[in-house]
Each structure stands twice: as structure tokens, then as C-alpha cells.
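HUMAN: Spend a minute on the protein record below and explain its fold to me.
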Amino acid sequence: MNDKKRVIFASDDQGVLDRWQSALEGQAGIKICRSRQDLTGALDTLKPDQYLLDLRLPGLRGLTGALGLIPRHSRCHCLAFSAIPIDDEGIQLLKAGARAYCNRFIAPQLLQNISQIVASGEIWLGASIMERLIRGLAEPKALSPDNPLIELTDRERDIAVRVSRGASNKTIARDLDISERTVKAHLTSIFGKTKARDRLQLALLVKQIELR
């Protein structure tokens, strides 16, 4: 009688959850999981049609954890979400069985469309990943010159995005519930990995990758 999709939202970020909710509310029966442990239990018992996986989900360990999780639940369609989508990361997730790879801050209307595409049995690819696949360049690389953010941890990517949007260390610390000293330590690591000299150069780097 109820033909709604069964969907799991796997994230502990309320802003992300609110965005997903506004996209799929009324179209799916939704369960929220705020940790990897909760998610694996729900996947085993509920066997949802789809699950939206935030790569910053506590306990997941980012890309590494997702690559181990997705193949074990191949009958449940995974839509993976990254703070800064990077082609190499997306290709690895799609090869593992993910059905879509998106920005965590995706517009609700676009997410609604992507969910429908996945429900129809298709895979959703961003334009840059599609172009790489068409050109036969799908083999992922650990690090490439045009993807300097791929070595960042999920927390570092999150901070890099916030810096690119003009957030101060104090604001970032408050929003992420960490100390300013921890923010500074993350930024030192980010600058070292990306070779960005300052916040402006980092912001330009993030914007360049986001616009691909």
C-alpha cells in the first residue's frame, strides 16, 4: 500500500540532514543514522532502497571506511556525499558500488532528481567524472597535480571549505565544537599538503575544484 522508497540518512551534521530532508520528505520513508555502527545495523535489518552516506559520518573513517562498507551492502543503493567532491575519490566509490557521488551541500531539487535517477536503476555521475570515463582515464591515482586536496582528511576538507567561504578560525572552532588551537593545527596540515601559502590561495584552490 505504501510505495515510498525506504531511505537511510547517514550523517551527524544537522545542516546536511535538514537539506536532505527538504529534498526527500514526503517521497520516502526516512531513518536517520548518526554513526557507522547505527548505519550498519540499519542496513542489515531494514535493507533500504537507498542510503545517503556522508563521508564524515562518525566511525566511518572517510573514503577507506566507505570502500569497505558499500560492497557489503550491494543491494542497497548508496549515494555518497563529500565536503569537496574530487574525481579520483568519486571514481573509487563508484567502482566500489556507489550509485551517485555528490557535494554535501547539494541543492535539494538536484538531490531529489538524483534520488529518482538512482531509484530507476541508473547511476548518476557529475560532468567531470563522466568526461574522464569517456576519455578512458578512470583509473584512480593516489595523488595527481590537479587534485591537491585528495590527501586531506575529511575534517581538513571541511575546514578548507569553510575557509574558502570566509569563515574565521573562531567561527570554525565554534561550528565544529573544537578549539581554535585545533583549527590552527588543521590549517597547518592543510597548507602543508596543498602547498597553499595562505588562506586566500587555499580559498582559490577550493573554488577551482568545486567549479569543475
Notes: Residues 7 and 131 are 29 Å apart (CA to CA). The first helix runs from residue 14 to 24. The chain has ten helices and five strands.
